[in-house]
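Pipeline run #58 for the internal structure catalog. This entry was flagged by the ingest filter as a single-chain record with no existing model, so it goes straight to prediction. Upstream metadata was stripped on purpose; only the residue string is passed forward. Reviewer on rotation: M.T. Logging verbosity set to normal.
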Amino acid sequence: MGDLFWNKTFGAILAVVLGVMALQTLSDMAFSSGEGGHHGEEDESLNEWAQSRFSYYTEIAETGGAGGEEEEVYDLGALLAAADPSSGERAFKAKCSTCHTIDQGGGNGTGPNLHAIIGESHAHAAGFGYSSAMQATSGETWTYESMDNWLENPSSYIRGTSMAFAGLRRDDERADVIAYLASNTPGAAPFPEPLPEETAGEEGEAAEGMDGEDTSGEAVETTLDSETVEDAPTEATGVIETQDVVTDRDSEAEGNVSEVELAPDSALSEENDAGSDTD
């Protein structure tokens, strides 16, 4: 066996080791759990990733997620109160200006002009070719709530609309755009009030605590007054009660016991007077 044989042997062993390592690396890449999310963003879903990069995309149904979580209450009033119209303007220019104009007197494009849109009715722009689905809702008004639902998912809000826009899924971004639309609507209605804080539960707990207090001790203390306690014992009469026990020998033989009467105070006093008289 020469040096050539050992070189081939070591080379074969090295090739096997490298092959095993390569297979392990490939398996980790193929069956990894996807830690870090899409493109290194841990909490970003596929739809959010696509939305951040494209103006139009097809929504992908997402499944999974932790169950049993308490649903958060959606407060449009609070979102609009914290909205920034300047951020809404930037979002509008990036995602809406390719189809819509918003300047007063601006022309229609792929979509209608959106100046003074808040408070207008659906399909209000004269001369624009609305879809039949939008025309069917022409009696409805673009309120803040309806605009919020429309911008979130147009195809879901009005089935059959020809607007091929996936929507603005981030609540704060949608509120910013609505605030920008309102700033371009002369005499726009005020934003809806934020939902009131839930103080009823705290008040109920406080009332329950007051009702649930043990007041039995207080009742005893108030009913047992010191004067009442002093007056409670029976006053001494100064008269000693006596018992007249009459025994009958015959009755004792029969096992009968005579009854005993307690003489009242008045009868005792009369007997004593009679005895003193006979003496």
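catalog note: Residues 76-183 form a domain with the Cytochrome Bc1 Complex; Chain D, domain 2 fold (CATH 1.10.760.10).
catalog note: The first helix runs from residue 3 to 31.
status: ready for reviewer M.T.
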